Amino acid sequence: QVRLVESGGGPVQAGGSLVLACRVSGYNFRECDVGWFRQSPGKEREMVSSFNLEGGETTTYTESVKDRFAISKDNVTRTLFLLMNSLETEDTAVYYCAAAQWCYGLTRGTPYLGQGTQVTVSS
């Protein structure tokens, strides 16, 4: 059974930083795609960042977080991280850890998601 458990969200002032963590179990964490989605009220869920393992390891970021966020992972502890710097009020959302349903491609099929962690950025 795939299980993803996020931690690290909370309130922060604009310009501040947070680190999200996600422990993953029951999944081929080392060889399959994992990443982060977020959703804020009234908006569709969007993919924030991901590790893409098909054909090699690459990372992707949505345009609005490039140069501010950094994704990383520890294959030994099966933990995924998202370092968020220079946070903006527009980053306020529930952040979800995700694992690809079919190993490659977080947007193929229905990804496994964690329960979510709230990030609230105030001005």
Would you kindly provide a written description of the structure presented here, covering whatever features stand out?
A hairpin with a 4-residue loop joins strand 7 and strand 8 (79-84). With 123 residues, the protein is mainly beta. The protein is globular and about 40 Å long. The N and C termini lie far apart (40 Å). Strands 2, 4, 5, 6, 9, 10 and 11 form a seven-stranded mixed sheet that branches. It has a four-stranded antiparallel sheet with strand order 1-3-8-7, with no helix packed on it. It contains no helices and eleven strands. The model has no long low-confidence stretch (mean pLDDT 97). It has strands spanning 3-7, 10-13, 18-25, 34-39, 46-52, 58-61, 69-74, 79-84, 93-99, 112-113, 117-122.
The whole-angstrom Rg is 14 Å
Choose one word for the global shape. globular
* Average pLDDT, all residues: 97
Secondary-structure-derived class:
mainly beta
Helical amount? under 10%
* Span of the ends, CA to CA: 40 Å
Q: What portion of the residues fall into strands of 2 or more residues?
A: over 45%
Reading the helices and strands in chain order gives EEEEEEEEEEE
Major pleated sheet: 7 strands, mixed
Helical run tally? 0
User: Which segments are poorly predicted (pLDDT under 50) over 5 or more consecutive residues?
Assistant: none
Q: How many distinct beta strands?
A: 11
